[in-house]
Specification:
Strand order of the largest sheet: 1-2-5-9-10-11-12-13
Number of strands: 21
Bound molecules: 1-deoxynojirimycin
Radius of gyration: 24 Å
Largest sheet: 8 strands, parallel, barrel
């Protein structure tokens, strides 16, 4: 179960296609728009691009409600555009990943429409009505002639595809075995779908809710068997392709067959705490009452890097050689790095950490220029969660330059997918490219440094010297990294006089002498020993 080296050495970049670049002038981003900005991504040093779903869909959950897995949504383009994009990516040393949504479809998917009127169809999980027409808890009433109801996977309009249950229950006859016809048909469909896009030139998939397939599955054992089976097929049919899980528990997802899994704001034995305790509570300041604990990368220095580091070591021990933990700056479901009260000077230390740690770095589009999580936006394509948390703040259009609509689209502003950040001082790519000291140029330089020195990447050893403020670690026995994300100067005594002779590769206010490491507010330093 080897991992292709292009993934091990990757710098990932997530694109929410609605909001990246609109080439057609309809106010919504598209595939050609992405293709037109590949030179930018190559300049930045990105090597893998993951697109959120771009398939035919009623877009009630931004495309995570797929109505046809084999067809690109016309607003994004067509098959040829995917093939062209994959090819143009490869010409720049970039791999293209799509988003696979295996756990559920839209309720407008022809499979579901047929199933809702055919009691012999078991592609979905159907329960008969009980006495008085009452449905079992969690089931949603059938929209067709079929009596009873179906089990949703996320929103009610996303019926769960039937991959079976790990165990039967005498009172719940809808629990089919994983080997039953419906579950097997869905497994076969997964391969057909993946095979089709891989043949068009894409290099793999981010897999939505990968943990959710087999129901009532203690320790996710049956779900893991399912994915190991998929992986076996993938290794034979497309050995250079990869699967990245949305699981949030790399210690389980990698042994289950995934090449890598994301640390997320949820999942894992500590339910997302490692990521939340690092740099994002997952929500913007509008939802401040959700904030459970301080983050290590908050200015007041009240957090701890220890939770994250322990979780990382735990994941690593379970994974061993054959896979990776991905550390994202943010994603389309949770707040950006630049959210709430965080100020721009806090981001360079965060990126210095992201790009010198052995986890695979994943940059959410726009985070490289410090785009803000925009508060107060309307519910857009299902961005509003049942809990009331609105994901739209992290989904606003990419800010390219100072032209109208920040260069995202030529459509009238009122037609844009979401408004451009109205802040007069909003950052943009053009302005930051021209400024050597910008966050964008910092991120680019850090990516280049990681690329030039394998010790800073996934394979270099990691020795933590201090997990407080500053955070200090050695990479590959050769690079010393110092990170101080707090607003106060910090000094750390050390017992290694040889550090005084280290050469600064990059530093923003960190000094080493024979006895101490001194780190100014919001600083970082990378030194060669
Ligand atoms: C996780 C995706 O990231 C999210 O955006 C989506 O709403 C749910 N899965 C349902 O597919």
């Amino acid at each position: 179960m080897a991992v292709p080296s292009w993934l091990s050495d990757a710098v990932l970049y997530q694109i929410y296609p609605q909001s990246f670049a609109d080439s057609g002038g309809d106010g919504i981003g598209d595939l050609r728009g992405i293709a037109e900005h590949l030179d930018y991504l190559a300049w930045l040093g990105v090597t893998v691009v993951w697109l959120n779903p771009c398939f035919v869909s009623p877009m009630r959950d931004a495309g995570y409600d797929v109505a046809d897995y084999l067809e690109i949504a016309p607003r994004y383009g067509n098959d040829q555009d995917v093939a062209d994009l994959a090819e143009q990516c490869r010409a720049r040393g970039i791999r293209l990943l799509l988003d696979l949504v295996p756990g559920h479809t839209s309720d407008t998917h022809p499979w579901f429409v047929a199933s809702a009127s055919d009691p012999t169809d078991h592609r979905y999980i159907w329960a008969d009505p009980g006495p008085g027409g009452v449905l079992p808890e969690g089931f949603v009433r059938s929209p067709g002639t079929r009596p009873g109801g179906y089990r949703p996977n996320f929103f009610d309009f996303q019926p769960a595809l039937n991959f079976g249950y790990a165990r039967p229950h005498a009172d719940e006859p809808w629990r089919q075995d994983v080997a039953a016809d419906g579950p097997q048909a869905n497994r076969a469909a997964l391969r057909t779908i993946m095979d089709r896009w891989l043949r068009l030139g894409v290099s793999g998939f981010r897999v939505d809710m990968a943990y959710s397939l087999v129901k009532d599955d203690p320790d996710r054992a049956e779900t893991s068997w399912l994915w190991r089976d998929v992986r076996g097929w993938l290794d034979r049919a497309h050995p250079d392709a990869v699967l990245l899980a949305e699981w949030g528990d790399p210690a389980v997802a990698v042994p289950a067959g995934f090449h890598a899994d994301f640390f997320l704001h949820f999942g894992g034995p500590d339910d997302g705490r490692p990521l939340r305790s690092l740099w994002s509570n997952g929500v913007s300041s509008e939802y401040a009452d959700w904030v459970a604990e301080p983050c290590y990368f908050d200015a007041d220095g009240g957090g701890s890097a220890g939770v994250f580091l322990t979780a990382y070591q735990h994941a690593l021990a379970a994974i061993g050689e054959p896979g990776h933990v991905i550390l994202p700056t943010a994603n389309h479901d949770f707040a950006r790095l630049q959210a709430g009260t965080r100020t721009p000077e806090q981001l360079p230390p965060a990126f210095a950490f992201l790009l010198t740690f052995p986890t695979l770095p994943a940059i959410y589009y726009g985070d490289e220029i410090g785009m803000r999580d925009v508060p107060g936006l309307p519910d857009t394509e299902g961005s509003m969660m049942r809990s009331g948390y609105n994901r739209a703040g992290a989904r606003t259009p990419m800010q390219w330059d100072s032209s109208p609509n920040a260069g995202f689209s030529t459509a009238p502003a009122a037609r844009l997918y979401l408004p451009i950040d109205p802040d007069q001082g909003r950052p943009d790519v053009a302005g930051q490219r021209a400024n050597q000291d910008s966050l964008l140029n910092t991120v680019r330089d850090l990516i280049a440094l990681r690329g030039d020195h394998p010790e800073l990447g996934h394979s270099g050893s990691l020795e933590i010297l201090s997990d407080g403020y500053p955070l200090v670690y050695l990479r590959g026995g050769r690079f010393l990294v110092v990170i101080n994300p707090s607003d106060r100067a910090r000094t750390l005594p050390h017992g290694r006089p040889e550090l005084a002779a280290a050469t600064a590769v990059r530093q923003t206010g960190v000094k080493l002498d024979q006895t101490t490491i001194a780190a100014g507010p919001f600083s970082y330093g990378i030194f060669r020993l």
